[in-house]
Design goal:
mainly alpha, single chain, 10 helices
Length: 168
Amino acid sequence: MKKIVRLTENDLIRIVKRLINEQNDNASLSEGLKMVVNNASLDLNGLKTICNFCKGRTDLKQQQNTGQLITKVNKLLSGIENPVNLMGGGSVSKVAELINKEVKTPEEVCALIKFYYNQKSLVGLSFGGDDEDFYEAISDDLTTKVNTTEPLRRLMTSIGSKVGAQPK
């Protein structure tokens, strides 16, 4: 006599997530990032998913331009002009522009995210800031802005364009 096993909806969701994670882990960085971006939402949760994927890759090495990109992103996300630009969310939009112009491959995208490190400026420290990874830097910058949706959408689209994917 066969035993019938009944799965709940939560069981099925957990199984599908595990299969997707295993597929992402076994896929090349490019294909894995493409799958993650295609399934990412156009909000901070989607960005966090992408960042976690890149930071979790053990096969990723710094690229030739990683240090230069990190320096440029740090300058865009920190500094005295940052709090003044409350309406446009310009800092994150400028990071999106930088990615569009200077990042060429999925490996460069993930290297920027994985190895990003921001030592907050004295201005940032005076507001209680600390060292940040890529996600925290973007998130913190957006919390001081009125318009967060469009700059984040631009950033997510820029990341997606490097892997031939489009976040939802």
